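Q: Predict the bound structure with calcium ion.
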Amino acid sequence: MAISRDVTAQVELERDLQTTANRYKALIEASATMVWRATPDGSLVESSGWGTYTGQPESAYIGYGWLDTVHPDDRQRVTTTWREIFASQAAGSFEFRTRCRDGAYRWTLTRAVPLKDASGQVQEWVGTDCDIHESRQASEAIRLQEERYRLAMLATQDAIWDWDLGSDTAEWSEGAYRLFGYDDAERADTGAWWKSKIHPDDRERVTTSIKHIIESQEHRWSDEYRFARADGSYAEVTDCGFVIRDAEGEALRMVGAVRDISEQRRANAALRASEERLRLALQAGRMVAWERDLKTGLATRSDNALQLLGIGSGPISLLLDNVHPEDRAHVERFTAYGGALSTVEFRYLHPAGPQIWLTMRAERVEAGRIVGITFDITERKLSEEQAWRAANHDALTGLPNRRLFHQRLEQALAAAERGGTSVTLLLVDLDTLRDVNDIHGHDAGDAVLREVASRLVEGLRASDTVARLGGDEFALLLTEPLRLEHAAKHAEVLLERLRQPLVYRGHRLTCTASIGLAAYPDHHRNPYDLLKDADIALYRAKAQGRNSAVVFAAEMRSQTERRVLIAAEVRTAVAAGQIVPYYQPKICFTTGAIVGFEALARWQHPEKGLLTPGYFGSAFENPELATAIGSSLIRQVAADLGQWCRCGLDPGRVAVNFSSAEFRRPDLAGDILSVLSEHDVPPARFEVEVTETVFLGHGTEVVPATLRRLHDNGILITLDDFGTGFASLTHLKQFPVGHIKVDQSFVRNVVQDQGDAAIITAVIGLGRSLGMQVTAEGVETVVQANRLSAMGCDYAQGYLYSKPMAGSRVPWFLRNWSGEAVESSRVLRLA
Ligand code: C2E
Ligand code: CA
Ligand code: CA
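A: Predicted complex:
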């Protein structure tokens, strides 16, 4: 029975074993873990789930075939580890990636345990393979997350803190201590330490605010305060934290970050200060700073734009709408491109004010952005304009001056040449402004000039120019369609208009004018030449007796050129003493005696021989030359006279001719008198001959005083060429004239022409009644002499008696002259 008991026990044991084995088998099947067995040298014998896991058939993975599914990157390591474990005969594990049934790799954990017999010899290896893919990925994710946080903490400038409220311990990020300069010794990880570092003035406020957050149900806290640095200074910080609460809302800890904003605060303050400076500078400079975004077209403007420009920030059209229409295109181009142009000036109509001038400067800072400033240059523009006006206009009349006139003339000529049109130039010279100045004062003269200016401007078009060239000279520039012939008519209209008297302080003032005209293309193209043409024509108008208009003609120029040429020759002739007086006697009709001589200028030309004024007479119209000739002649005449008298001869009175140009010299009377006294010639031996032109026109203001002074000193004043001029009889009354010479044009025909005879009779009568002597010039025949004598003429002068002779011949002539009364036809002869 013992056996049967043993058997029963054996059976039970086997059944138990079977049960246990089944239970394990079931367990293995139920678990996700694969179980395997391998030979002592590591060759896989069986696996409970490998085939299912990897899709490898059993025949493939048994032995070492399973290694084929290991990821190529892991295979070497797995093989090595696997061998090492078996060699060590101790349990081991390793992880690797396995290619699974779906082709994807999954992380797998393999553990191996040796089964040893009593002698410690390894019988076989058993082990497990677990799919750890998910957990491995999760922990990898956590590791990455932690790494990120760690790096973020390292990277941040902020001090991160984590404060356990229960234990009052605080954990600060590594950077936190560095931020405030604390080294290891000074660190303390408590909330109390933190509070102790808050500036005493801020501490109460900050601790109260954080306490309030903790006690309330709020989560977020933030504050700004000063936090002590290790060196004792304080940092300005912002601190922000979050409260972590348990399910009941009890605050457990706070996590937050402190940021040092000292630098930012300082930078902000500096920025504010510099912005303020900029604002004040812009205000002081009347400047607007702006920036334009080329993509959006919007302009941002400094605040003072509102005051200066009447607009704020916004589209560019805000500005452009107020820009003067003529400048708008400019400005638009400028604000669009910047860079290309560095500055633009334009007129701007301030919405609430007058027009102002602005300048804009800009720079393209990047492709789509232009930054610039706009500033008010109205004052500068005004003063520039004033300066320009002053430089280019005449202050009295407000007309353009000579300088601007030249510019306009040049422009007009260039335009006329381009356009095939015409330009007419009128030079207007007032005839008697000096008289007005002299008689009525300079205020009256100014009034005349202003009136003349406005009369000249009357009826002209905007394209025409009236300028005052200086003194009593004006100029008109008329452009197409006023061609020369029309301009000549216009000149006549102007003369008529200027002739009209104006009333100034109760006086009627008249100021006639002479006008010279020249035109392009009729005359010259060059402005200088055209002006010259007009000037020549003007000269002619004046020579013709003024108050007239003359159109330039080419031959005038040659005459003028000849005059200029002769002037140059005469200048040297005077200097060389080639101009000498010739003397022609004057005979008394009643006694036949010589009563005097007339000195006439002659040029002893080295090649051409003796020349009369017929050749060089134009020189007498040139003030400088006339003066030079005059001075030289007076000296020679005075010297001759002095010498004749010393020789006991009696030449009577010697007359010298003076042109009106000579009366412009400052002290003609004084000069004459002093030369006479130098040569001991009494003024009673001297006579001055003038024509009526001396009383008219330019420079006549000193004439009355000069004549008066000469007369008062005993010099006889003679009115030459009487009857040919324009002067009225009032001149005879007005000036101290003592002697009249009847012009030779009347004498020539006295016998044949009743009219001329009548004029001579009238002149003789006039002279008589005014107590003046009358001389007939140009007496060539005895018949003329008899006739004139019968008419009651006092003296005669002419070829009948003698041609003008050299001074050296006069003594001989005087000594040999024996005259008798004119009645007998024999009387006049040289003994
Ligand atoms: P005038 O003052 O009328 O002088 C008289 C002119 O008549 C002189 O001409 C004289 O030579 C000329 N003559 C005299 N008798 C006769 C005659 O019987 N028949 C003709 N056909 N002519 C006669 P001259 O010397 O050629 O002078 C011309 C003019 O030049 C003068 O006219 C005078 O206006 C001017 N002149 C001459 N010398 C001077 C001078 O020294 N100074 C100035 N300012 N003018 C002068
Ligand atoms: Ca004369
Ligand atoms: Ca004469």
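A: Residues 307 and 352 are 9 Å apart (CA to CA).
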